[in-house]
Amino acid sequence: MGRSPCCEKAHTNKGAWTKEEDQRLVAYIKAHGEGCWRSLPKAAGLLRCGKSCRLRWINYLRPDLKRGNFTQEEDELIIKLHQILGNKWSLIAGRLPGRTDNEIKNYWNTHIKRKLIARGIDPRTHQPASAGAVAPAPGAAASAAAPSSHRQHGDDKAAAVVRSSGCSSRDSSGDDDSTSGSSVPHQHQLVVGGIDLNLSLSPPTSQPSSPAAAN
DNA sequence: AACGTTACCAACCGCAGAGCA
DNA sequence: TTGCTCTGCGGTTGGTAACGT
């Protein structure tokens, strides 16, 4: 079968973004808002695929991004959240305003993993390295222990934790901000290690509501 | 000063799920 | 109800900078 490629690869640029491309993208989104990524590149006059534009915007150009070093607080929060959610970077990012899933994922892989290992903690199970090897973490944490089985079944448990709250990872973005009428509040109050993990799934950047938010 | 290695960040790829006709 | 399209997510890779020998 084969799905049609997300874009005409032959006519799209790849690799690092230029300043001009950034400017075009930002200008377009400021004027028209996000959405319809597939048609955006053409409309904005960019030789990029929609996916690429979305990623660039979300991970780099969004005006509300924090950028810069992670604080000790963020650090600990990421660890706690990862313990509960596993590699659900988008959900974790949702609890860290101004941070993107990609940024957190990178940070986890390059800093936190190492840090935990140095502390003698298995970064997947969040258990003492020796114990973790034999005793997988209970509950949701188990998902983190699951060998990255490509999010097929491995993280089902962590996902279940989230779903049980009436949300799916999709919801976070879907954000049917339905707040409006939805009888099921998208919240899940958790307190771990003294940190109140209110797992309400709000988009990382609650709506670029007003493009003007930029600057 | 040159070369090799390691660490970090940005971007790409493929898949799954939601929404719609 | 089914199939198709689009979006979003997570994993992985490539490029570059920093550091060490």
Automatic annotation (TrEMBL):
One of its GO terms (cellular component) is nucleus. Residues 9-61, 62-116 form the HTH myb-type domain. GO terms for molecular function: cis-regulatory region sequence-specific DNA binding; DNA-binding transcription factor activity. Pfam families: Myb_DNA-binding. Residues 128-149, 197-215 have a biased composition (Low complexity). InterPro entries: Homeodomain-like_sf (IPR009057), Myb_dom (IPR017930), Myb_TF_plants (IPR015495), SANT/Myb (IPR001005). Its main location: nucleus. Residues 124-215 are annotated as: Disordered. The keyword Cell cycle does not apply. SMART domains: SANT. Keywords: DNA-binding, Nucleus, Repeat, Repressor, Transcription, Transcription regulation. Residues 9-61, 62-112 form the Myb-like domain. Gene3D superfamilies: Homeodomain-like. The keyword Transport does not apply. It is found in: Nucleus. GO terms for biological process: regulation of DNA-templated transcription; regulation of lignin biosynthetic process. It comes from the Eukaryota. This is Uncharacterized protein. It comes from Sorghum bicolor.
